[in-house]
Amino acid sequence: MESPKINFASDNYAGVHPAVMQAMVEVNQGPAVAYGGDEYTAAAIQQFKQHLGDTAEVFFVFNGTGANVSALCAMTQSHEAVICAEKAHIQVDECGAPEKIAGCKLLLVPDIQGKITIEGMQAQLQRIGDQHHVQARVVSISQSTEYGTVYTLNELQELAAFAKEHGLYVHMDGARLANAAASLQTDLKTIVDAAGVDVLSFGGTKNGMMLGEAVVFFTPLLAKSFLYMRKQNMQLASKMRFISAQFQALLSNDLSLKNARHANAMAQYLAQGLGKINSIQITHPVHANAIFAIMPPALIEKLHTRYHFHVWDERLSEVRLMTSFNTQPEEIDAFVRDIIE
Ligand SMILES: Cc1ncc(COP(=O)(O)O)c(C=O)c1O
């Protein structure tokens, strides 16, 4: 049988970390109260509070799109809008769910290496108070970004100060927040505090879980109706203990950070290998676990016979390569060798 293709397509292609799988097996004992009323969910929420502060209000959901869209539901009214980067996941890869489900308009800002700018935000703050115009209410920032870059703490502080000054709530799409924390060599709370986050979508799936994300509120007013919104948005798990157990594993013994550090280190190793090859041009700084690179179309075709990876921009012949908690150095060695030979 042909050996399976090696994964550089996505951290979503990776399996489940063994400790996470084990945690699910361990809670699979007898019945437990459904819909989050169980002891494992209470314990996992406590762990989140240890990482993110006692006042954080934590709700588990199934997936990243559900986390983002439900968060935006809680943050906006129907005449309000969300400022985000042109390439933000909520704009490009959620099939219009924010518009359909949260019912809010997205106001797009050209990004620099995936990052939103203050000038861009400023340009979208038009006609405030004008009854004919949608009112900007939220800025959504991805950390790490869709291009695998990471905002520095200073950059986040500046964006947060601007947002607060202009009455904007801050949403953080933290599907890969652990990768950002590993890259900045800091902890989750330091990032969240720097960005003045009101509502965080925290990613578990890309960090070694089977499925599950958390929506975390730092502004209590916004959390007021979230129990009901989560249910309306079909993001309430009946057997929630199996999501909670995964988070317990991820947030114990620094597993989340360890997984992210490994994924990031593998991206650096891959970038080093690719950096030595003349026909390949890396197009964005490699801060987290994604590499974007331009390579000849014939090479892409050849590599696709053995490796999973996405062509990001066909016109540029630009590909996206992603590493995960279980990427092996030998897989990277093989990839680089196959390019050179
Ligand atoms: C930055 C970011 N946010 C959100 C998501 C959404 O996650 P899901 O596919 O679980 O809905 C993704 C998924 O790739 C992502 O990359």
Treating each run of at least 4 consecutive H or I residues as one helix, how many helices?
15
Count of DSSP strands:
13
> Structurally, how many domains make up the residues?
2
What does the main sheet amount to? 7 strands, mixed
Strand order of the largest sheet: 2-8-7-6-5-3-4
Mind explaining what this structure looks like?
This protein is an alpha/beta fold and 341 residues long. It folds into two domains: 6-13 and 255-340, Aspartate Aminotransferase, domain 1, CATH 3.90.1150.10; 18-250, Type I PLP-dependent aspartate aminotransferase-like (Major domain) (Aspartate Aminotransferase, domain 2), CATH 3.40.640.10. It is 41% helix and 18% strand. It has 15 helices and 13 strands. It has helices spanning 18-26, 39-52, 64-75, 89-92, 97-102, 118-124, 153-165, 177-184, 188-194, 220-223, 226-232, 241-250, 255-275, 297-303, 329-340; strands at residues 6-7, 57-61, 80-85, 105-109, 135-142, 169-174, 199-203, 213-217, 281-282, 290-294, 307-308, 310-313, 318-322. The strands form three sheets. Strands 2-8-7-6-5-3-4 form a seven-stranded mixed β-sheet, sandwiched between helices. A four-stranded antiparallel β-sheet has the order 9-10-13-12, covered by helices on one side. Strands 1-11 form a two-stranded parallel ribbon. β5, α7 (153-165) and β6 form a beta-alpha-beta unit. The radius of gyration is 20 Å and the shape is globular. Bound molecules: pyridoxal-5'-phosphate (PLP). Pyridoxal-5'-phosphate (PLP) binds at residues 63-65, 68, 89, 142, 146, 173, 175, 205.
